[in-house]
Amino acid sequence: MFFRIQYETQIGNVWYPVVRYDTAHGFAHRDILNLKGEVKKTPLFN
Question: Which of 10, 19, 20, 28 has CB atoms 3.0–4.6 Å from 44's, for a disulfide?
């Protein structure tokens, strides 16, 4: 099973990704993104 869900928020006229859930690297995980473009990846299931 493959999935991708992303939440974005609008600041001014620009949309920014905030959190993404997906299986892009062979496992289900959550990516938390910040305004600097840094990503914190955490697995959803152990």
Answer: 28
Q: Which residues contact 16 (CB under 8 A, 6 or more apart)?
A: 8, 9, 10, 33, 35
Domain count, the chain: 1
Domain that holds residue 15: 4-43
Give the list of residues 6+ apart from residue 44 with CB closer than 8 angstroms, or none: 21, 27, 28, 29, 30
Query: What pTM did the predictor assign?
Result: 0.78
Sheet holding 39-43, edge to edge: 4-11, 14-22, 29-33, 39-43
Strand positions, DSSP E, 1-46: 4-11, 14-22, 29-33, 39-43
